[in-house]
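To whoever is on call:

I kicked off a structure prediction for a single chain this morning and the downstream step that reads the tokens threw a length-mismatch warning. I double-checked the sequence; it's 176 residues and nothing unusual in it as far as I can see. Pasting both halves so you can look.
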Amino acid sequence: MPFTAAAAGTTGLTAGGALAANIAVTAAVLGAVSSANVASQQAKNQSAIAEANAEQSTEEARLRKVAGQEKQRILLEERRRILSSNRARFGKSGVVFEGSPLIVQQEAARNLTNNAATEAFNTELGIRGAEREAQISLLRGKSARTTGKLRAGQALFTGGTQIAQTGLQVELAKNA
């Protein structure tokens, strides 16, 4: 028969029975404290991982912003350069910016501006996604800490229950 708190309590009040009851209580206390410590450490580890993920997502958002701003700057500079070049070529050839040449130039400007606006929009989506991921990671860390506290409390409560059962069985054995 395996050694349990219940088995210790049924051995009676002999010296060996009292010793067995004390051992059972000690084992229950140590088991409860050990389980609580494990739950607490697991929560700390999960929380640390979640916080590291949040930091990484925050850094990703920052890098996306920097890269997006640079890409937009390049696109707008390219727009300025292309439009300037077109005006110079048209002017050199004697074409006046009226009618079709003007429409072509306006369409080119509109397309180049739309490219920059699309890049800005995509950059903003990427930044928001990374920031949202950082927030989710922080919430996961907070949840892990809360879960760890609950599991530690549960382990201590279970240990307390085992101790109470052992004490009850010892008392029952005294009265038998």
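Update from on-call: the warning came from a stale cache, not from the record. Cleared it. Sanity check on the structure: Residues 5-175 form one domain.
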